[in-house]
Design goal:
Blueprint (H helix, E strand, L loop, with lengths): L24 H24 L12 H8 L7
Length: 75
């Protein structure tokens, strides 16, 4: 999964993913919410594929998103 404002989701005028955490708090909140929504969508898709247990992790900013993404699967 690629987070908001990273890799191919990054605006062309940027050199790095500086929009995800920036001095613009509204943009930071929007990007964080979008990343959590995307992670939840991935978990929902995995559940639809038959997985009943998964782990979610990340590094750096990804670990923060993983930590705040609430579980959706029922065990």
């Amino acid at each position: 999964m690629t987070m908001a404002y990273h890799a191919e989701r990054k605006p062309a005028e940027l050199e790095r993913a500086e929009y995800h955490v920036s001095s613009n708090i509204g943009r930071t909140i929007h990007a964080s919410r979008q990343s959590v929504i995307d992670a939840r969508a991935c978990l929902d898709w995995l559940e639809q594929q038959g997985y009943s247990r998964v782990g979610i992790l990340g590094t750096s900013l990804g670990s923060c998103i993983a930590f705040i993404t609430p579980p959706t699967m029922r065990v």
